[in-house]
Amino acid sequence: MAGFHFVFGEETFLVEQTVQQRLADMPSVSVKTFPSDVAISTLLEALDAQLLFEPSLCNLVKNPWFLQKAVPDAQLRLLTQFCEAVKGASHEVIFMQMGGVDQRKKASKLLKKHAQCQGFEP
Can you point out the beta strands (E) in 10-122? Predict the structure, then answer.
């Protein structure tokens, strides 16, 4: 079941549909949704806790703040650490960005490097 997905784009209907279909393909998995202002350290902690207690959980992060503005270097290191940790995980992680993504920013480049990406632009 493991997977790391980054779904984004201006075509918000298609972004939403893609994420909903991905979740529908995993009917026995619990979904934990995180708000847009979630700290990257919180995501790392949730990933560690999941591995111990809930191996069939999907983390869904909607419109994460670090895709909308510049990310300080310390936070970027945490995001890199998170991406590396997801590789060895046995569950799903989905980052969903409704709207455009500045693909020149380090955070979006990092996600595109580590996750399966689907972009929906007009």
Answer: 30-34, 57-62, 92-98, 116-119
